Amino acid sequence: MQKKSRMLFRLAASMSLLAFALKALPCGIFFFGEDYRISFLNPYVIGEDYSPFFYSADLLHSYQGPAYGADRSRNCREWANAVGSRIDEQEVREVLYQGSLDDLLNAVEEGAATRKFQGNAFFQTLLKPENKDILDYLVFAKRYEYYANYYDLDPWEMTDYESAPEPSAEIKGLKDLAGERLSNTSNPFLKKRYAYQLMIMCRYDGDVARFMDLYSRFFDKDPAPGVLNDWALHHRAAVETDPVRKNFLYGLSFARNPEKAINAYILFDKNLLDRMLGMAANNKEKAALCALTEVKNPGRSLNGIQRVYDLDPQSNLLSLLLVREINKLENWVLGEKLTGFTPVATPYDETAETGENRDFYRAKNLQKDLAYLGEVMAFLQRLAKEKKSAVSMDLLNLFCAHTAMMLEKADEAGAYLSRIGSPGNSVMGIQKAREELLLLLYGKDINAPAVQGKMAGLLQYLSDRLENRQEAKRDFNSLHLAISKKYEDQGNIPLAFFFANHAMHTPHAFEESIYYASSYYTLIEYLDWRAAPGDIDAVLAVLEKKDKTPFEQYLTAAFMPSRNALLDLKGTIQFRRNDLAGAEKAFAQADQDFWSTRYEFAQWLRRDPFWIVELPKTGDSFPDAKTELVRRMIELEKTAQADQSKAGENYFKLAVAWYNFAYFGNSWMMFRYWRGTNDSPENFPSGDQDLAQVYFSGKRVKEYLDKAAAAATDPELKARIALLDRKIQENSIFLANDYSNMWWWEKEEKAAARRKLKAPYDQWQDQYKGTAYYQWLIGSCDELATYFGGK
Question: Engineered SS bond to 487: which of 38, 336, 495, 601, CB 3.0-4.6 Å?
Fold first, then answer.
């Protein structure tokens, strides 16, 4: 009969068995900074005009501004004033920005009966005879917009971008028409508009001389500047050839043109600041240049912000700089505390995660950041006291409250928060509710029922008004992470668990499944290595309670594990500690078909846990339920204690079982829910070194082997006991020398490793060579026979 190779020693054949048992982790897993950055202060409280420049782990927070910002609003107001009627800005916007050239031409053709702009007072006013020239200009502008974006003229993508025909003849005709109408019109509104369009055409034609003539005549020294003057300034920067003056103009453009600010930001070189300041005509211009320099500063900017304020307290960029600075500090001060990750940085610096003295320097930096937070708060208080900045008092009170909250000065934070008006459901109103929640978290007893009721109400309010932005969802999840951490710090693991599950989509480094995706395990992972059996009971009590309070209703609205999963976890926690009676009781309360139908239990708990390949097969398999297995273990131990004649054999079976429940065994899922190729005693998830020794070093196996050896009288049983003890020694050598990648080594290195792994068996072979068990063992495996020199 053909003999089967069943060797488990660390020979060439054994490595494939170990590899099969491991759940390999994907290589190079990481998260983008914006996936986990902590930001409790919503930067949109300052408005959205400069939203691309909110603090971010990326180069920019976003790569396009708001669809309808301050620039377009100013433009619409100028159009409304031009037709001389009381026109609502929204109606102007509908015609200027929400209609195409075809929409406009069709509407003009249909006249008062138009369907596109039906009921639009602005369009109806344009149709009046006295406004014909203004309507003609609008058609002209729409036509130029159409042809200037010539690559959009091919909606069916019949040609690629490079070969798309440029409508140069049409644009030349429009350019000539603009020059003609500029000369003929006497309307100041139209004169400046045609001058602007013609100037833009000259820029893109490369006609710099004519561009400069138009700019100087109509925009440079205009006594009544409007939105076109600021837009013209941006184009003026584009045609400038001197690098310092070019940067100077872009710096001014950034402050005046939110819609064109991304281009100015990218092209602005902050290293030229000192030379640019010499070109500034006044402190306002200097402040604009200093402000953009700080917008491009990912580090501490307080000195620069103070400089901007001192130069121009009315700078429109102060609120942006302040909200950026607070968001930076949230990242630096709160990020690692709540997520376990270092503060986000661009570019990523691995030494911050793994370098020498990492913990020492990060702790030192945190203290510096907290001191800096105090300096920022003091400056905000100065602004609130002086009341001369462009930042509204509501914003300043909010910023003061938020920084006080970050320093856990709840009373001071509450005082500033009370000074904010009643902003309703605006962005400010929603942020105020968030601050009130943080005030409860850091200033009240969060275990008091009244406080918990308020927390539930505020959380539900915020949930109902959650914006459809990814970072808004991240920030809302992070609030739950902060609440969970607070409860965990107080030792209230059940409540910490509920809030952690509300935040499960925010990446954090505290869980062992950070690199492992499983919907089943994700629901219980917070409890797995933190909870005591009583904590699981408390969770079940809340889940199964009939008349839940609003707080409990909110808790249980998160994704929750099933009752069976929680009972299995409770039993597993007790089982790890060898509390077999407690484990049996917990497992018995679960549905007994649970382990054959859910998760991967049937995959990894299918072999006989009382058998290893060095023993003759019993023909058994894993019991149908964990309950049955634990009952059998309890019976084996009771019998061993009561009947000395069976003690050696029973204790040996228990030793074999605990070997299989551990790292190198066939039923390791009795102890853990998943495995990875980076598993080691050093990164054991709970940090409990006693359990780590049970799982990796065979501590509990050795305890039962010692009992078995003390009771054994049969040489055959002693041989089996001694062999399993040598396997524990071999495993220790394997782990200590990190032989997990041995199959990639050179031939000589492999041979040396195998000699080390064989060493524990040399004495065993000499001592038990005469036993029937030894003869059975080498007779069962050709490789093992060769290993022991039997062939």
Answer: 495
Greatest CA span in the chain, whole angstroms? Answer: 119
**Closest by CA position to 51, among listed 39, 62, 40, 38:** 62
- Residue 165 maps to a domain: no
Q: How confident is the model at residue 160 (pLDDT cuts 50, 70, 90)?
A: low
Cβ proximity of 586 and 563 under 8 Å:
no
Confidence category of residue 759, pLDDT binned at 50, 70, 90: confident
Q: Do 748 and 762 touch, CB atoms closer than 8 A?
A: no
User: Can you read off the two tokens belonging to residue 37?
Assistant: 């950055």
Residues composing the chain: 791
User: What type of residue is 571?
Assistant: G
Whole-angstrom Cα distance, residue 237 to residue 246?
Answer: 5
Tokens standing for 212? 């400069």
Q: DSSP assignment of 88-152, as one string?
A: -HHHHHHHHHS--HHHHHHHHHHGGG-STTTT-HHHHHHTSGGGHHHHHHHHHHHHHHHHHTGGG
pLDDT at position 134: 97
Residues 6+ apart with CB under 8 A from 376: 302, 325, 326, 329, 403
Q: Tens digits of per-residue pLDDT, 409-453?
A: 999 999 999 999 888 889 999 999 999 999 999 999 999 999 999
Nearest-angstrom CA–CA distance, 225 and 96: 21
Bridge partners, 621 (sequence order): 607
Task: Provide the CA 481 distance to its chain's centre, in angstroms.
Answer: 12
Q: Letter for the amino acid at 269?
A: D
Range of the domain at 553: 432-441+464-597
Residue 268 forms part of a structural domain: no
Coil, strand or helix at 621: strand
DSSP-based three-state secondary structure for 69 = coil
* Residue 689 C-alpha from the chain's centroid: 30
Neighbours of 107 (CB within 10 A): 22
- Separation CA 48–CA 277 (nearest Å): 28
Q: Phi and psi for 709 in degrees, rounded to 5?
A: -65, -35
Which backbone phi and psi does 675 adopt, to 5 degrees? -135, 160
Residue 340 located in a structural domain: no
Does residue 52 have a pLDDT over 80?
Answer: yes
Tell me, what amino acid is at 512?
E
Tokens 């009240």 belong to residue: 444
pTM above 0.90, yes or no: no
Token digits of residue 776 = 């059975």
pLDDT digits (tens, 9 = 90+) for 84-94: 878 999 999 99
Same domain flag for 677 and 573: no
Given 568, 597, 626, the domain boundary residue is 597
Q: Using DSSP, how many helices (H) and how many strands (E) does the chain show? A: 42, 0
**Cα 343 to Cα 328: distance, rounded to the nearest angstrom:** 9
Cα atoms found within 13 Å of the Cα of residue 745, Cβ hemisphere only? 16
* Location of structure tokens 């100013």: 74
Residue 740: is its pLDDT beyond 60? yes
Q: How many domains does the chain have?
A: 2
Share of the chain above pLDDT 90, in %: 70
Nearest Cα neighbor of 227 from 77, 431, 68, 366 is 77
Ranges 46-50, 219-223, 276-280: which has the least confidence: 219-223
Kindly state whether residues 514 and 608 are assigned to the same domain: no
61/4: higher pLDDT: 61
Q: Compute the distance between CA of residue 25 and CA of residue 736 in angstroms, rounded to an integer.
A: 21
CA distance 390 to 403: 20
| pLDDT per residue as tens digits for the range 602-632 | 999 999 999 987 777 777 888 999 999 999 9
Which has the minimum average pLDDT: 11-15, 385-389, 409-413, 487-491? 11-15
* 722 & 712 share domain: yes
| Boundary residue ending a domain (555, 579, 597) | 597
Is residue 574 in some structural domain? yes
